[in-house]
């Protein structure tokens, strides 16, 4: 079961980093569009459009960060066998069930791994301190 916990941890870390990267790309994309509008639009409408476009990019980035950072934190905690990480990842796995199809697969896998008795024993306070 240790291998499954490690795989689950890395899946959460990688998917969280992909989410942050997508948010950053959205921020850069909308920031670039705002820059183009600022250069190409000669009229006063650019002073309205530029903050709106920048705000949309910033909103996408904040949403992506809020949704991705908990997975990264949970994955790190699973790798270090922190008891709070098991509970946090179970909650995240339940929420991921709504994200069809990949989130559903990750959620089912996470629940299967973390609700087993073997993994429950791994995260108890007196468990072996073997780290990954």
Determine the N-to-C terminus distance.
Answer: 13 Å
Strand content: under 5%
User: Could you say which structural class the secondary elements and strand pairing correspond to?
Assistant: mainly alpha
* Uncertain parts: none
Question: What is the helix fraction of residues, given as a range?
Answer: over 70%
Total DSSP E strands: 0
Q: Indicate the radius of gyration in whole angstroms.
A: 20 Å
| Overall pLDDT metric | 91
Which term fits the overall shape? elongated
Major pleated sheet:
none
| Series of H and E elements | HHHHH
Number of helices: 5
Question: What can you tell me about this protein's structure?
Answer:
This protein has 132 residues and is mainly α. The chain has helices at 2-40, 46-79, 83-96, 102-114, 117-122. 80% of the residues lie in helices and 0% in strands. The chain is elongated and about 70 Å long.
Summarize the structure.
The protein has helices at 2-40, 46-79, 83-96, 102-114, 117-122. By secondary structure, it is mostly helical. Helix 2 (46-79) packs across helix 3 (83-96).
């Amino acid at each position: 079961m240790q291998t499954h916990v490690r795989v689950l941890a890395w899946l959460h870390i990688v998917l969280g980093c992909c989410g942050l990267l997508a948010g950053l790309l959205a921020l850069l994309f909308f920031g670039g569009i705002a820059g183009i509008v600022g250069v190409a639009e000669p009229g006063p409408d650019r002073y309205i459009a530029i903050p709106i476009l920048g705000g949309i990019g910033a909103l996408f980035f904040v949403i992506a960060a809020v949704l991705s950072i908990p997975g990264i934190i949970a994955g790190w905690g699973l790798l270090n066998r922190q008891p709070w990480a098991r509970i946090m990842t179970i909650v995240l796995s339940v929420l991921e069930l709504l994200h069809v199809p990949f989130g559903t697969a990750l959620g089912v896998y996470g629940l299967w791994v973390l609700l087993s008795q073997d993994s429950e024993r791994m995260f108890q306070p007196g468990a072996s301190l073997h780290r990954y």
